[in-house]
Design brief:
By secondary structure, this protein is of the alpha/beta class.
Length: 197
Amino acid sequence: MATEILSLCSGTTNLALWIAPLDFPGTTNPLPQPLKDLPLTLLSLSISLIFHYTPLVSLSAFKTFSTTSHLEILNGLVLWSSTVCLEYLHGLTHLCLHIHTWRTKPKLVVSLLTLPHLQVVVFHISEDVKSVKTFLEFNSLGDSHIVLASQAPTAWGEFGGGDMSLWKGAVQVVDWRHTNTQGGPFSVPSSNIMPHC
């Protein structure tokens, strides 16, 4: 069903694909074909959708990601053992991942933070903010481009429809940090511009 809907969306640039791979019948993944034809710039999805029944483990191998500038990966497993080659997505400027202090490998976070084209990194957190900040600081990952946000479910308007508040809020926090040098890399403005933060 999802593939039929995607095939009708030829000009779509903004997509939240929130379905489970178990929804695919058979033993092949029908999504890569209709996705590769979309000129997506904003994408939110579970990467298990892409890798289900697929031998590839690199997002850069999929044409879908070559035009994507804003990417939200819903799976918590990214940064546990691999970056799934996010560093090779040179058009990527905004990235949203989950961070877990007990599973995230700091060297994988470092590999992403050194990318010159990445302007904003939002980490959804399921732990308390203080623990995550301590983890990041202990591992020398204090970076003004990192924005922490609660793992509360994101509404479509917060991802990319409407006012794009997830990305808009994260950019406002990063911009504020560049003009306000006091408070450290994880400081936020007094006004609550990030949803669920």
